[in-house]
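#structure-requests
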Amino acid sequence: MKFPKIFSIALLSLATATVAQAADIATTVDLGTTGLGLHLSAPVAPKLNARVGLNYATYSYDGHTSDVNYDFKLKLATVDALLDYHPFDGGFRFSAGLVHNGNSIDARSRPDANGNYTINGRSYDAAVAGNLIGKVEFRKNAPYLGIGWGNAVKSAGWSFGMDLGVAFQGAPKTSLALRGCTAPALVCSRLADDAAGENARLAKEVKDFKLYPVLRVGISYRF
């Protein structure tokens, strides 16, 4: 992934803070709706910490629109640059920042028990129709707001933390198209038109996923 300048700035700021306060740097391993993550935290001001991290996971599952069954593969791949504010100088925190969002869903059509597809209301033999293949993608840079618990840099040793928030990723974009049609040209042309209709249907199915919920728990260590 190609990261925007804000992440380079965040990493530089964290590196500067780390050099200045090497004893206060904390490492966190976490798990949640963003996948498996690794974060580094360092203090930048009283009650304020900077946190950057990588998150990744993959997951395969079945799904469908009103017409077509799909094999979906979800890829979670994000980088976040966050500021954690501890108003009471304790574990409770407000968090805000930006997430570089590489999350995506690969989609591949799956024929029914009779070996057919129903696309845009019409039935086709899957053996000659090919496959509907596409991707669901999201806005690359998503603002993040949340609350949480844990101050990994406050004291040496092990500590526990959690995040509860939301990434504002915008309406998903779908790119579903027909691949590998071996039917007569007229049938393939009609299939392509129907595939465009199915793409619109899929877009409608996922249009409400503008907010991505973030819930994760982690274990931190500070030397």
